[in-house]
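Crash report, auto-generated. Payload:
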Amino acid sequence: MKLLLALLRRDLILAARQGGGVGTALGFFLTVLVLLPIGIGPDQVTLQRLAPGILWITLLLSVLLSADRIFQQDFEDGSLEIMVMAPASLELVALTKAIAHWLSTSLPLSIAAPFLGILLNLRTEIIWPLTLAMVLGSSALSLLASIGASLTLNLRRGGLLISILVLPLYVPVLVFGMSATTGNPEVIAPSLLILAAITLASLVLAPIAAAAALRAYLK
Amino acid sequence: MQQFANPTRFLSLANRALPTIWVVTIILFAIGLYGALVSAPPDYQQGETVRIMFVHVPAAWLAMLVYTVMALASAVAIIFRHPLADVAAKTAAPIGAVFCFLALATGSLWGKPMWGAWWVWDARLTSMFVLFLLYVGYIAIWQAIEEPTRAAMIARIVALVGFVNIPIIKFSVDWWNTLHQPASVLRMDGSTIDWSIRWPLLVLGLAYSFLFLALHLMSMRSEIATRKLRNLQIARSGEA
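Recovered output after restart:
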């Protein structure tokens, strides 16, 4: 446990000091947010209707594009092999690294996103459900991203492949994330509960899959 | 089970079984297509376009069945280290992707006159599309990783993770309002389709399954040959 906390701390410090962390992801998020109204047109009514969807898709892409950081560097400098030999099981190491990714990238983004939605004329009364849904959903996004990151660990052109592998897995999060923010008031609570269920299921399954993939690469 | 693990024994069995399987496939297709194109009546609303269903529905069934076969083979590969299981999973994927594409394409051809659009973002269509993407991702993994044993290990995980996702996708998109008709052939409370249309559908479903079996066995056979060739080439380059 102490070991895992130390690993978590190390990853967070690395993310904070190295750059390419939440700052870059937020920059990417803003850039997409600026480009989309140019593509769609500045009509306020249209933007208001599309805003939750735009924010979710942008969140998905930002999390996905930062996913290769989860394992890549540690694999390249060899520290991943030391983690394999550590007394903690590889599954827990994978889980810890996914949590570090969530804390350093997905969580700040999912808190910031609904407020950036004001740029898109987002209806103010759905800011809170959207924040709640994104915080819940983003943890599942990070966990699923860790599967993709471990599967494409040592591949050239891994970036495109990780999108094909992970984006289909993001479909349920997107469906229920959207129904929690744009659906009728009475489906908001069940959608949030199902989002929580998806998060819990991926909390159990994602580290197992990620660890299995890491073992295949480190053999 | 274990005695079929031997590729040589598998090959001789496949070679003996394949002609019979092809004959059964052709007979089933002949009966099914006669039922679908000649004996089944045109729908009172849809007219002759309803016949697209006879291609569409079995293809959709098979697309899901083949993914299940793929996931099962991957699970067997992980649990029993069965040498043929990876071959089975790898060769099933392109066939399944083609069935999936066929279901999407014929559905689109049918949707244009019936719904007035080539494509609608309906729950059923979307989940089939996602299934197609899962197939593409699985095939891409085999192509991206050069070393076969490692590619096999990674591909197993991809197949199983995708399989966990299939029911989630299927039920999550049910929350959307759906234009596609609900399941009507295989239901707990009996079929809602008239027998004159149902029997060609079922026969064609069987015909598609046998077609898959035949194509899968042939594809596995050529994959085994490819691997043997590769091993021979490596052995020879080692001698030289």
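Post-recovery validation: The interface with chain B takes residues 147, 151-152, 155, 157-158, 161, 164-165, 167-169, 171-172, 175-176, 179, 194, 198, 205, 209, 212-213, 216-217, 219 of chain A (CB under 8 Å).
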